[in-house]
Amino acid sequence: xxxxxxxxxxxxxxxxxxxxxxxxxxxxxxxxxxxxxxxxxxxxxxxxxxxxxxxxxxxxxxxxxxxxxxxxxxxxxxxxxxxxxxxxxxxxxxxxxxxxxxxxxxxxxxxxxxxxxxxxxxxxxxxxxxxxxxxxxxxxxxxxxxxxxxxxxxxxxxxxxxxxxxxxxxxxxxxxxxxxxxxxxxxxxxxxxxxxxxxxxxxxxxxxxxxxxxxxxxxxxxxxxxxxxxxxxxxxxxxxxxxxxxxxxxxxxxxxxxxxxxxxxxxxxxxxxxxxxxxxxxx
Amino acid sequence: xxxxxxxxxxxxxxxxxxxxxxxxxxxxxxxxxxxxxxxxxxxxxxxxxxxxxxxxxxxxxxxxxxxxxxxxxxxxxxxxxxxxxxxxxxxxxxxxxxxxxxxxxxxxxxxxxxxxxxxxxxxxxxxxxxxxxxxxxxxxxxxxxxxxxxxxxxxxxxxxxxxxxxxxxxxxxxxxxxxxxxxxxxxxxxxxxxxxxxxxxxxxxxxxxxxxxxxxxxxxxxxxxxxxxxxxxxxxxxxxxxxxxxxxxxxxxxxxxxxxxxxxxxxxxxxxxxxxxxxxxxxxxxxxxxxxxxxxxxxxxxxxxxxxxxxxxxxxxxxxxxxxxxxxxxxxxxxxxxxxxxxxxxxxxxxxxxxxxxxxxxxxxxxxxxxx
Lengths: 283, 372
What we know:
The structure holds two protein chains of two kinds. Chain A contains 13 helices and no strands. Helices cover 73% and strands 0% of the residues of chain A. Chain A is an all-alpha fold. In chain A, helix 1 (2-32) packs across helix 13. In chain B, a hairpin with a 2-residue loop joins strand 4 (59-64) and strand 5. Chain B is elongated. In chain B, 41% of the residues are buried. The chains are: A mainly alpha, B alpha+beta. The interface between A and B is medium-sized, with 19 and 26 residues.
């Protein structure tokens, strides 16, 4: 039965890679639950003998990031108040751009779209200096609003691309029918097009949330002190040395920083696949 | 006053590109069903889009119900449209689809409900009103799309190939229904199709189009019996009209046409052409004759002035059920004859055919224009 053997080989490979990817997570969780002595004495892969959440509590509320020792709590909320508006605004504008580029073509709309696509390939580093100047000019330097602005601008190319490509698959007779029914530009968007967009909204939100939440470079460049996002704070926390390296606290902090993106994937992950593979809207 | 009148309508998409519509003139009376028919790319759908106001026109004039609508947006033209893909709003139920247009025009909820109920009753879709388009079959979606149009109670209905997404059986059923509906509500309809059978069965008037130009405008029977040029003659009718290159010769004081096949030669007098062939003696012309005008010999009719008999060898036989199509060769051209199945000879055999030239038409082989 060569077919069966082949299948088992595939399973074996899949399981191997699964373990390979899950092992670091296991080590992180196990280490974060161990007290320091156990880490020093024991094996990296050993289960905690006496699990406790002390390290988590410290990472959340009292670990030192530089000279301040208030844990990640404040920075976590910084990241939330940066990511949520940045994701919502960039998704909404992307949907609107996509609607115009796909359904209300105008002279030069394809050129505009091509130029927007270039935005997807611009490396972060290139925009740092001009963006710093712009933020200063707008009076948004080192503020969370400034970071939101940066992420919205940088995300627009992607969100527009997603929505535009989703909307070109929607038959334009739908828009014609709505125009004859008397609906205008905005009403067609709100009543006909947006209600069809759930899968692509899920894709865009996941993509944008991951991008914005995980961003380090913009965070470290365009913010400072207590207004930094959690990624920068995590870096500071790990690099702040008080004699003993507290691996359990570092691990707990890293997991805390990663939890929201994990959460978004678990909640909206199935829509992600569905949205990426969605073709024309039937009906 | 005509329900729809179009004067010298031109359409060009952008500066340098060729004209899509090259001066269309049409008039549709109240309650008439006009068919726009032609091969793909002939401009029929563009014409419909211009009437709807979905595309801007380049020049000319469109009047709906006597009112010039040249630059009015679609919603102000008092029209409704049924699309090929139905274009039902996927996120709304059938009921919401039908009442959406009314809602936008600010019709009160109670009145909207009354209209929806009335329309649903007309189209027998009461049971489907709470379903989304995805839960409806092709024919049901078609009905809902028509319901959406009827609910508006417009001065003019526009149908853009509404049946071409349906399977063959359903298409014939819906064709009959559209005709019944048209009789019942007495609406004025402009209906685009590429299917000449749909055009013949549905239309009060037919406008045959090609390359952005109106080829002929008339009743189905006029267009079928009296085509203005070679294109119209070949486009309308299935199987299509036979075109036989013939030489015009003098015959019995008038003109005749020479037919040759398998060593036999016939000179058929072409009566009833009003002497228009007279000037063509010695010239090659195209004789247009429909398959049903070449049948097996019937004793009672062979004496008539315009009926002539020829014996021809049969190439191929195609039974269709009610008739059998017999293929023969005349003047080097394949010719289809429609005969009663019982009288069809077998391939290779000789068979006597009766040519009825009373409805024969003649074309100039160079220009394709009708001579007689």
